[in-house]
Amino acid sequence: MSSPTLKVGIVGLGRLGQRHAINLAQRVPNAKVVAACSPVPAELDWAASTLGIATGYADYDALLAHPGLDAVFLVTPTSLHADQIIAALRAGKHVFCEKPLSLDLADCLKVEAEAARHPQLTIMIGFVRRFDASYHDAQQKIAQGLIGKPYLVRSQTCDQNDPSGAFMRFAPTSGGIFLDCSVHDIDLARWLLGNPVPKRVYASGTNAIHTGLQAFGDVDNGLATVEFSDGSMASFMASRTMAHGHETLTEVFGTGGRLAVGSNPRLNRVEISDAHGVRNECTPDFYARFADAFLIEAQEFTDAALGRRTLSLTLHDATEATRIGLAMTQAMREARPVEF
Ligand code: NAI
């Protein structure tokens, strides 16, 4: 008997959508991409010619009506996530959706309410770092008590500077650096600290290079501190101006020790000794750092939708990440602490 297959529609074939499409089509054994959806004809052509996805839809509702479709993989602009998730659930489809769930807390809660009406459907928001082998190991070690009681997470997402400023096209809709980048660190902090309840947030930021971000109330470097009601804390940095590459670093301090993931953001194990000293090359971008995790994420979503595993990551975790990210953004813009 052949093993069951999840028939997936990929929605959004931009910067990240193409990566997900390649993984689903070529590297997730129990998934089959049966259709693609994008308003851009060239992207549908790419899916057909590169991956053999013959059926393309410009219209999302038409994709949802594709015969036999089991699940959608949403890699669309964040502003579309909530409505697209709700439409998929109402059409009886399992849903994977990229982070963040939404930039609007009321929309997050609407999605949670709709999901509660469809308990048989799997829904996963793509907090990819939870599927990274090193973060997974760190979380297991903390749960086993290796560092005692964890009380402080210090975590950063720092992107290499793009002198062309191409990322500026996302500035009007990204929600700002905390919701776009730190949302990953927020999710990690909650996970590694055992889901504490946020109490108060402080935040500030600066524009070191990309001063045009100011027009959108955004910064190219941001700092935030979150206090939780159980006394634990988290401190976040996000940057778009690193000279050396992409650096994601997380430290967890416990009463009996400290764990760090990513202290050396090296590209690989090659060590170069030359006139500059002894050094490694750095991961250039988030995908180089988390490529394996993106694949594991897609495999785990597929297995969960096929009923072969349960997910530890919940929709409520995604709501909480948005809630904390919004408070950080407000604290920075209003230059004052924000209470929950
Ligand atoms: P992008 O702008 O490169 O791609 C967006 C895609 O959505 C394009 O293919 C566009 O044609 C398509 N699209 C637009 N309107 C649509 C509609 N109505 N129906 C169907 N498709 C539509 O954006 P990118 O960078 O790929 O980001 C997409 C999402 O992925 C965002 O939510 C972003 O936050 C998230 N993301 C997550 C990352 C992670 O580390 N997990 C990293 C980068 C992005």
Automatic annotation (TrEMBL):
Pfam families: GFO_IDH_MocA (PF01408), GFO_IDH_MocA_C3 (PF22725). Residues 6-121 form the Gfo/Idh/MocA-like oxidoreductase N-terminal domain. It comes from the Bacteria. Residues 136-259 form the GFO/IDH/MocA-like oxidoreductase domain. Keywords: Oxidoreductase. Belongs to the Gfo/Idh/MocA family. This is Gfo/Idh/MocA family oxidoreductase. It comes from Janthinobacterium kumbetense.
